[in-house]
Amino acid sequence: PRRTARYVEEAFAQIKARRNVRDIVILNDAGNPVKSTLAQDEAVQVAGLFQAIRGKFERGMSKIDPTDELLMLRVRTKTNEVLLVPDSKITVLVVQDAQDHFEKSCA
User: Fold this and answer.
1) Is the dihedral of CA 38, 44, 45, 50 positive or negative?
2) On the CB side of 49, how many CA atoms lie within 13 Å of its CA?
């Protein structure tokens, strides 16, 4: 499907309205930030780092099952959660606060 500027704006607004969302970076199919809550230089840096993780993950998964495909990559720390959601035209990267007291639930 085609990802127009309107589609990007609508996706951005929907994500931004969600509770606990701190930062959003939407990347085009070349991996360049096209919309972000971060300053442009920060968005480029974050995009590069997470695209590198994505690439390594996809290469590792292809060794396990070459027919599988990445739908979402979720990375969780004690205080943050990062969601990377790729599709054929854009990739959405969201950083949100981990508000469910992860430490207590693991104790």
Assistant:
1) positive
2) 9
